Amino acid sequence: MEFNGLLTIVTFLPLLGSLLLLLFPKKWAGWIKWAALGFTALNLIISIFIWTQFKTSVPGFQLIDKVPWVESVGITYFFGVDGMSMLMLFLTTLLSFVACLASFNINHRVKEYYSLFLLLETGLIGVFISLDLVLFYVFWELVLVPMYFLIGIWGGPRKLYASIKFFIYTLVGSLFMLVGILAIYFASGQNTFSIPQLIETSSALKGWALALPVFGALFFGFAVKVPSFPFHTWLPDAHVEAPAPISILLAGVLLKMGGYGLIRIGIGIMPYAATWWADIIGILGVIGIVYGAFCSLVQKDLKKLVAYTSVNHMGFVLLAVAAFLKTGAVAALQGAVLVMFNHGVTTGLLFLLVGYIYDRTHTREIAKLPGMASIIPIISIMLIIASFASIGLPALAGFVGEFLSMTSAYQAVNWWAWVSVVGLIVNGGVMLWMMQRVMFGTVADPHYKELRDASFREFFAATPLLGFIFFIGIVPMPLLNMIQHTITTLPTLPIV
Question: Rounded distance, CA 312 to CA 177, Å?
Answer without folding.
Answer: 24
